[in-house]
Amino acid sequence: MVKTFLVEKDFNEGEALIKELDEANFDVHAALWLYESESEYWRLIIASEVVDTHGARKAYEQINDIINQSGDLKSINLMDITAWSPKHPLIKSLRSVIQTSPKEITDIRFSRKTIDNTFIDDAYIYRMQ
In which band, very low, low, confident or very high, does the pLDDT at 37 lie, cut at 50, 70 and 90? Predict the structure, then answer.
């Protein structure tokens, strides 16, 4: 399903996924919905050291397992999720202006801003550490 806009259900499902990842001890350094204006698509970005230590494929496998084990995450699709390293340039740029406490889940809207010559059309940030 192509997500051209987000509704409250998407925000709540994203938060529920982060909580499930935390409970499963899956490392989440950053989590946010990011709007890709070129494709007109929202992606749920999960930045984790699992990507650095075991690779993106392992991160996707673990995220998918957690989604499948949870009865509450029926509408989250792995195709909407992108696993990045916490060292990804956009994560590093966002972290330079927004930081949250570890394990904290926030609801920060970050729209129409440029950081390090990268324009961010829209983002909904849960965690940035």
Answer: confident
